[in-house]
């Protein structure tokens, strides 16, 4: 199941996030560090960093605060 986002100011829907990207976003938004997230998901912190870079690129987001706001607004 992928998550498709639509923003009120965008003309086209935002690209979908993969399930593992959604899970990573949920952990980071909950205040976990990259290392804590990696351990919980059974990944390396480099993989968590890669997921977050992909999320930021897909959604054109530059900060963790913006990621967190998005996650909260989506109910993640």
UniProtKB/TrEMBL annotation:
The record ties this protein, via SUPFAM superfamilies, to:
C-terminal effector domain of the bipartite response regulators
Return one Gene Ontology term, BP aspect: regulation of DNA-templated transcription
Task: Report whether rRNA processing shows up as a keyword of the record.
Answer: no
Which Gene Ontology MF annotations are present? DNA binding
Question: Gene3D superfamilies this protein is in?
Answer: Winged helix-like DNA-binding domain superfamily/Winged helix DNA-binding domain (1.10.10.10)
UniProt region (Disordered), positions on chain? 1-21
PROSITE patterns in the cross-refs: HTH_LUXR_2
DNA-binding as a keyword of this entry, yes or no, is: yes
What SMART domains is this protein classified in? HTH_LUXR
Q: Which UniProt keywords apply?
A: DNA-binding, Transcription, Transcription regulation
Limits of the HTH luxR-type domain:
10-75
PANTHER family annotated for this entry? DNA-BINDING TRANSCRIPTIONAL ACTIVATOR DEVR_DOSR
- Name under which the protein is recorded: DNA-binding response regulator
- Taxonomically, what lineage is the organism? Bacteria, Bacillati, Actinomycetota, Actinomycetes, Kitasatosporales
This chain is encoded by the gene named gacA
